[in-house]
């Protein structure tokens, strides 16, 4: 995972690989560190090849945590495979996905 700042100062967390049991905690920690200091955090999901149930739970829990911090977590560049998973699980109706 890599942090980048947009021209307007909005941070983007660029994710790569798999979002699973091994990486879910790091994902939560990275977003938490950004959400406490920003109104919006973008999470670039283009490099995510697979998401398991732990990864889905991490996305939802992190989204709620960011919202409680007064921050909007937005999933961007979501590839078709992950988008299909979010649609099947109905998480696309809960999360902000662009």
List the helices and strands and how they pair.
Layout lengths: L1 E4 L5 E9 L4 H12 L4 E12 L1 H16 L3 E5 L3 H9 L7 E2 L1
Parallel strand pairs: 2-3, 3-4, 4-5
Antiparallel strand pairs: 1-2
Look at the structure and name the CATH superfamily: STAS domain
Task: Indicate how many domains the architecture comprises.
Answer: 1
CATH class: Alpha Beta
> What is the β-strand count?
5
Contiguous helical run count: 3
Tell me the CATH architecture.
2-Layer Sandwich
Compact description:
The chain is an alpha/beta fold. It has a single domain (2-97), classed as STAS domain (Transcription Regulator spoIIAA). It contains three helices and five strands; from the N terminus they run E-E-H-E-H-E-H-E.
What does this structure look like?
The protein has a single domain, classed as 2-Layer Sandwich (Transcription Regulator spoIIAA). It has 98 residues and is of the alpha/beta class. It has a five-stranded mixed beta sheet with strand order 1-2-3-4-5. It has three helices and five strands, in the order ββαβαβαβ.
């Amino acid at each position: 995972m890599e942090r980048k700042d947009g021209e307007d100062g909005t941070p983007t967390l660029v994710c790569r690989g798999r979002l699973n049991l091994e990486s879910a905690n790091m994902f939560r920690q990275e977003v938490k560190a950004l959400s406490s200091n920003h109104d919006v955090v973008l999470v670039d999901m283009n490099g995510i090849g697979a998401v398991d149930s732990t990864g889905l739970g991490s996305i939802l829990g992190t989204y709620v945590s960011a919202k409680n911090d007064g921050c909007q977590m937005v999933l961007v560049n979501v590839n078709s495979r992950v988008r299909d998973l979010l649609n099947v699980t109905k998480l696309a109706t809960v999360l902000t996905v662009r």
